[in-house]
Structures are given as structure tokens and as C-alpha cells.
Amino acid sequence: MPKSQFIDPNEVRKSGWIKFFDIPVNQYNRTLEEERQNFSDDQLIRIYRDMLIIREFETMLSLIKTTGEYNGIKYDYPGPAHLSIGQEAAAVGQAFVLDKDDFIFGSHRSHGEVIAKGLSTIEKLSDDELLKIMESYFDGAILRVVEENLKNISSIKELSVNFFLYGALAEIFGRETGFQKGLGGSMHVFFPPFGIYPNNAIVGGSADIAVGAALFKKINKKNGIVVVNIGDGSMACGPVWEAMCLATMDQYKKLWDEEYRGGLPIIFNFMDNQYAMGGQTRGETMGYDMLARVGAGVNPEQMHAERVDGYNPLAVIDAMKRKKYLLEQKQGPVLLDIVTYRLTGHSPSDSSSYRTKEEIEAWAVQDPIVTYRDELIRAGIVTEEKIQEIQSYVKELITKICALAVDENVSPRINLVKDPDGIAKYVFSNQRIEKMEDRTPEVLIPKEENPRVKQIKNKIRVGIIDGKPVPKAKVFNLRDAIFEALLDKFYTDPTLISYGEDLRDWGGAFAVYRGLTESLPYHRLFNTCISEGAIVGSAVGYGMCGGRVVVEIMYCDFIGRAGDEIFNQLAKWQAMSAGTLKMPVIVRVSVGSKYGAQHSQDWTSIVSHIPELKVVFPATPYDAKGLMNSALSSTDPVIFFESQRLYDIGELFHKEGVPEGYYEVPIGEPDIKKEGKDITILTVGATLYRALDAAKILEEKYGVSAEIIDARSLVPFNYEKVIESVKKTGKIVLTSDACARGSILKDMAATIADLAFDYLDAPPVVVGSKNWIVPAYEFENYFFPQADWIIDAIHERIMPLKGHVPKNNFTTNEILRINRLGI
Q1: How distant is the alpha carbon of residue 632 from its chain centre?
Q2: Backbone φ, ψ for residue 191 (5° rounding)
Q3: What pairs with residue 555 in β-bridges?
Q4: Which of 599, 654, 795, 804 is catalytic?
Q5: How would you write 410-449 as a 3-class SS string?
Q6: pLDDT at position 598, please?
Q7: Which of 14, 370, 421, 612 could join 571 in a cystine, given CB atoms 3.0 to 4.6 angstroms apart?
Q8: DSSP for residue 798
Q9: What pairing do the DSSP bridges indicate for beta strands 334-339 and 266-272?
């Protein structure tokens, strides 16, 4: 909400016209002879060689997949093989102008782009640089396989080609000697040392991740551009539209400080092969006629959109050179519509029944490998004999790489018998890094001069004095605790940025960020469009490229808008990269109150179900600051839940209050908030305080001493303290604001029953919210757990309380009834 930009009604209401400029369509028209002024003959021949390597590589995959054999090598490969046969010119043309500092991201059909980028990067790097990369990647494990098994390699560059193709194919075949130790597979081959970042099995899934990579380059002043390769079918996907909106925000050119002002360095490169699986995008499933037209609807520059003949590698090179120059002049982003065609089906099981034989043959006649080869011969650049030599070289290259990759002895899979944690060890990095880069963070004022820091100095850092609560206006609260941790890290880690909806000036939906604006330049704290998916997705890209980021998506309910980005992207890449990528990303979400069915849900259980996410939910200021500090030093993704009910609460449990200095609360360790001997109550989030109310009633009215444990974290979770408590009390109730059915509490209860069965006097009991919609505020006490619910559940399910008259029905018949009805 920049007050500097006055929205003048006289201007906004003025009549006029929105004017567009022409979008070029296949305008490249230079001959090969003309282009010889711009390319050496060796370069022109290498373009052919690289296209041929891609074609033979994918032909090999196709034959292995469909017949179980390639050139006498037998292998049964059950995995996916989404091929790009026919699209080689588009891939090689793109890669020709890119180097290791230029990052590419891709789709499930990106073998060609990966190979092209790898071959192009090898050509540009020195022998010393190549050796250093090969020797350091997984401590040289892949290199050793190649050196020990492939002979007669005459140069470092040739060794690098063999290394690269072998690492990619071993990955596709699920081998431990693959680039991701076989944990990524066909649709996720990547190699960051060459600027090749993750390809994505989710259609359009790379779009917003790539925007995050572009933000990382822009904000941290890194060389190079970002290219995201996605298909024409992805244009219908939410992540792509959200990514383009995030990439074209006006603030980059109008509001960011002069040093950082300008567009993002990203090309949305649509490999337009005419089909989205079996749907024909132009004429059937989409309405844009030509995909490049879409750029006109995104920003006044029309994203510099252009439609390019992707069957001509030189046309693609020409377009990439021009667009890369635009990005280097801070004029991005760019949209390229690369016209190409896949001669094979969506996958080997696709018979292409949705298109005619005549259509496929018409495109095959114009096969870019054949037509480009013929042009080289006609221009006298290469002879028929040289072509045959290249073809023989490529065939031999792919054959020996294939033989090596399928050999169980030299290319084994991760042995989960010998090493049961062979995959599990990559789920979390469990590293602690204070700052992602060692340089001075950019801030506007010294930390001690921040107005909110000065205000907090006057607050009381404990919640109770002389038995009385400190007034809300004077107490250091949970909101302040999170702010304090965030501010400290902004002054420590130069890569740290934070963004979301309404963060700057307003301070976020619940004022946690209030005061950060005074300390941080625009590029470190900024508002975004209302695109929760892109907010989280771009954070994934920013994190995997080496930065640390905190994003806010306001309400827990909005997790649904960022579902793929949280569940399939944020949660997956560390393990799928076999630990080569880190994910220092925090997603802040608040659990609501007062706002009804779509703004007040506790979805901790949904997130906790997803492997590879750390999940925390502090309920006190001390824990909020300590857990945020831990999350901000972690290299793992953390979903940081906060209760709107608790933002104003003071510290009630640490008598010394919340320390002003730095400290950490370990993620995964629950905390005993009240000691007791008769029953254990394990709480998550705001139910801590309702459990305290229940404990007081139990003590005063029934003589029952309750021990209360605040989970603080849900994933990971150390059960030892809970089990020790249960051994003492013999009974346990678990409670949170999440709906009871399918909740994480049910899983915890089952685990506790398993681990402490011999010590339990009754089964663990879960008290969660009703399996309804969240009702209006006036009915919330009938929906969220209350103190009397906990007491009634204890009375009915665990131990009768003398003289107790329950208000709520926890009987066996009621449990059967509500489950029968699904409520």
C-alpha cells in the first residue's frame, strides 16, 4: 500500500483506449549462409551434434520402454518416459546462448532441455572448472564410475559429456550413481552446477519456482537469467498465471530502490508442441489462437511476447539472444511461444489416436534434425562423411552410456536392506546455518533505532506480576516475540527476505511485521499480488537457489490455494535432490477465530500428514521467539502456525519472561507447562489455555492433578517426555482446535497407546473440534474444544469424576452415531 502513489479518480475514470502493439510471429528469415557471419562452422556443426545426441538419447529411452532393448542392451524400465522427440531444435537453440550462471527449470518433458543445457555449459567451461565440478559432486562418485568403465576418452570436455549423460541416465533409471541418487527419476533430472534446476512432474509446477529463482538473482545481485520451460498445456494452470502476475508486479519498476529497480530476469519459455496430452491447445482446449497473444494481457510491455519457429535452431538462438539482452537491461520478464511438435505420444503408452497419421507425417517431413543437416551439407559446412561420423559417434556414445547405466554392478540402486535410512536421511537436512551468505545485510537504520524496538523496550516481558495479568497495552506479547526474532535475522542474514499480502506499511494481517518497514528496503520486504500459490512456490525457488525466505499466507485456510506448492514442491525437493538442495523457507499461517467456515480452520493435521515438512505451533511468547529463531537458522522447510487468539497474550510460564537476547527452542521438543500426577493433557496451539482452565477445575472440584504438556511442534515430535508423563499418570487426553476426525492427534494417540500400552489405565482420548464447518463467532464455543469438553471426556472415557454432571456427550453411542453420519 504505497502512499506515494495517489490513485486519482479523475485519471482512472477518464475515457480512452487500451492499445496493443504487434506480436512477432515466426519473423526470423535469415539463411544459413547469412548466419555464417555470426557462427563458426564448428558451432553450426555442434548444434547438429547436440540435437542428434538428444534424439538418440530419447530414442534409446523409447526403445527400452516399449521393447525392453536398445542396440542389443536389454533392460526392463517400468518408470515414466515423457519424450520430446521432434523438439530438439528448440532445446538446443535455447541452450546455445546460456551458461552455468543462467538457470533453467523444466517440466516432465525436459530431457532435451537438460541435455542441451548440459552440453552447452560443458562447451563454455574450462577444463579446470569442469574437473572441479565433477570431482566435487557427491565426492566424485559419478566421475569414478565413468573414468573406471569408459575408456578411450581423449579430453576433459569429452569426459564431461560422458559424465553428464551417464549421470542423467543413471538418474532416470533410479541408480544411486544418478544426479539425485535415483530419488528424482525421469521427470526430475537436474544438475545445479550447470545451472540446471529441477524439472517438474506437475504441469506448470516450475513456473512460480522459477520466479523465486529470478527474485534470488535480482535481490542478491547474481549473474545470469532464469528460463522456465513449460508446455503450451500449462497455460491453463493456476501456477503459471500466478507466476506471471508475480513476475510482472509494477513495484519492481516503480517502487523498489533505484539500484534494484527493473523487471525480473526471467523468460517464460513455452515449448508449444500443439498438444496438452491428447488435447489440441489451439482450436480445442484453449482460446488464445496463438499462445504468444497472452503476453498482451499481463503488462504494458506485453511481456515482450514473441512466437518463434522452434523447428529452426538458429531462429531460437536469435530470439534467445535478443530476449536475454532485454533481461540484462532489466526489461523483463519475457514470454516466448516456441512453435514445435512432438513426433511421439504424450508417453510410450499413448497411441496418438487423437491426431491423424497424415499430421504426424507432415511434421516428420520437416524434422529439424533432417532439415538442418541438409542445410549444413548444402552450405558446404559439412560433408556426408562427416555427418556419418557424427552419427556413429552419437550412437556409440549413447550405447556405452546405456550399457553402463543398466549395469547393476557399477550402477547400483540405493540398498535399503543394508541402509534402511538410505532415503530417510535426505528427508531433512537438519543443518543450522546462521546466514546463507557472508556479507553485510542491507538495512535502512541501526536495529536499536527501529521505532517498534524502542516501543518494545518499554514493555513488560512477563505476563503476570504479583498474581495479576499485565495489561494488554504494556505486556510483551506473542506478536512482539515473532517480530523480535524476525528483525534480528534480517540484521544477520543478508539473503533473508519476506513477502506476502499486505506486509509492508500495514504490517501484515495481524501486525506481526509492523515496524519492519522502517528497517528494511523494499526488496527485502514487499507486498505481493493475491496469489498464495505463487507466494509459496516462489519461496521454494528462492530457497533452493541459496536464499532464506519467510512468506505469509495470512489464514491457515489459504493453504488450499497453495496446496501443490506446499505439498508437492516445498516438501519434496530436498529429498528428491538427495540433499544437494536446501530449503530454508518458513511459511507463516495463522489459525483463525471469529471469521467462520473459510477463515477459521486449523489445518495442522493436513500439513503434518505430508512428509518432509517441519511443523510448529507455539502457544506462548517464549516459545514463539525461540521456535522462530530455530526455524530461521534451519535449512529445512517449516510451516509456522500461529493462533490469532494468542497474538496479544503475555508470557505466563517462564518466570523470568522472554529474554531480550537470542535463544532457540529446539523444533520437535514438547514442553511441560504444568506438572501433575493424575492425568496428562497434551495440547496443540491455543487449547493450552483451555486445558489450564480444565486443570484448575479438576484440581479444585475433583482433586485431580493434571500435567499439561504443550506439543509446540508436530513434526518432528519427541515422544519421550509424553511417555514419561503417561508412565506417571496412566492417563492422557489430547486436544487441539483441529477437527477430531483424521487429525494428527489421532495419530499421536495411536503412537502413545503403542509405546505406553503397559502403563495406560484407559485408551488415550482425543478432544478436537467438531467435524462441521466452522460456524460464526457466536457459535464458536460449540465448535472449538472448551474446558468442560476436556473434563467431560475424562469423566466418560477415562475415569468417573465423583459428582460430575457432564454437559457434553462423549458416550460410546454418541461416538458411533456421529461417525455413522460422518459428522
Answers
A1: 17
A2: -155, 90
A3: 590
A4: 599
A5: CCCCCCCCCCCCCCHHHCCCCCECCCCCCCCCCCCCCHHH
A6: 83
A7: 612
A8: I
A9: parallel
82 counts as catalytic: no
Ramachandran sector of residue 221 (left: φ over 0; alpha: ψ -120 to 50; beta: rest)? left
All three cell numbers of 414: 540405493
CA dihedral 690→696→702→703, nearest 10 degrees, is: 130
The pLDDT value recorded for residue 737 is: 95
459: closest CA among 267, 658, 753? 658
The pLDDT confidence band at residue 279, using thresholds 50, 70 and 90, is confident
- SS3 label, residue 582: coil
Query: Percent of the chain at pLDDT above 70?
Result: 100
> What distance, in Å, lies between the first and last C-alpha atoms of the chain?
42
3-state secondary structure string, 751-787?
A: HHHHHCHHHCCCCCEEEEECCCCCCCHHHHHHCCCCH
Q: Mean pLDDT over residues 268-286, rounded?
A: 89
Q: What is the mean pLDDT of residues 469-476?
A: 95
Tens digits of residue pLDDT in 75-126: 999 988 899 999 999 999 999 999 999 999 999 999 999 999 999 999 999 9
Burial degree of 738 (CB within 10 A; 0-12, 13-18, 19+): buried
CB-based contacts of 795-802 (< 8 A; 24+ apart in sequence): 797/762, 797/763, 797/765, 798/679, 798/731, 798/733, 798/761, 798/762, 798/765, 799/679, 799/731, 799/761, 799/762, 801/698, 801/702, 801/704, 802/702
Could you identify the residue written with the cell 509446477? 205
Local confidence band at 2 (pLDDT 50, 70, 90 cut-offs) = low
Orientation angle between helical segments 111-124 and 41-67, nearest 10 degrees:
150
The per-residue pLDDT for range 6-33, each reduced to its tens digit, is 888 999 899 999 999 999 999 999 999 9
Does residue 218 contact residue 247 with C-beta atoms inside 8 Å?
A: no
Q: Which amino acid is at 683?
A: T
Burial of 39 (0-12, 13-18, 19+ CB in 10 A): middle
681, β-bridge pairs:
708, 733
